[in-house]
């Protein structure tokens, strides 16, 4: 049975949590189903103070009627010229922003459906593939990580069902916990409709080429999964200096703290991690995937590499000196490179120098994490980029992604 505080929270599912949703939302069978199915899968959601607000938001989306909301009708349906598909877009649920108020040195943005749709209209985006790749909020707490992954997948799936012609989503894993991640991703794909899986460059300090993840990637290989990778904060293990963090257990309280595993979020300089470390994180994890042979051995996996590879193109020649042909074959045929950020003015040239085909380039916006003043400049650098012709730019926005997601998304 559920603890009293969670039962009370569920009975109180009356908050107006998403734009236009009626305030009178009764105790819903969807919340009961999520709790029951999680428990059957060995996931007890009851002990956590984020469970009740997460269920509130999921139930609110389940009852949300876009046509009856106050969102302008012209935003709900894409314009005829909205042919771009955005593979790098993030959903930030309210409850998740509460437990992760900042990331990469930047405050977690406020996300609303209307602001997302307005962004899509401004950039002629017909479909966004949403991701929340990071379940590792309470480092070292396996139960919390598994619970967060389950609730994020339920939350994003409920949102996608509101406008299935505008949104798809990548599953959130529970890495570094392999057994739980295999089960969660399989469920998210087969039951909830996820079109792939989103991972971070490291999960609790372990990069993706680590042998402990071999069984997870073997499972993804069997699923012929599309793996979207996003940079994360680098972590530094500091033995004997445990971190201290807010409790994730109910009852909620600002003064509650617990001792976590001995990691510190590491930054080598005074600038925010989003500027100083994220691009190097992408390089670290794909170098690790290559040197561990994960990249070249798993020939049925397709990888989406963010920010046209971050700093990876600048180190390939110097860091990869063995099995070079097989590694480059993987980069050429199973890696897809999204455009998120201002990457097409100069950075794209470094990637294309490795004879990467423009037919493996994808559009990504990084909304809503990209600062608002950079949204239009990032889009403009694609339009003016000297590295692609007009046909290649158009294919990057729509045709390439259709080839990648053939059989997974109905465009």
TrEMBL record:
Gene3D superfamilies: Metal-dependent hydrolases. Residues 85-405 form the Amidohydrolase-related domain. Residues 1-20 form the signal peptide. Keywords: Decarboxylase, Lyase, Signal. SUPFAM superfamilies: Metallo-dependent hydrolases. GO terms for biological process: secondary metabolic process. This is Amidohydro-rel domain-containing protein.
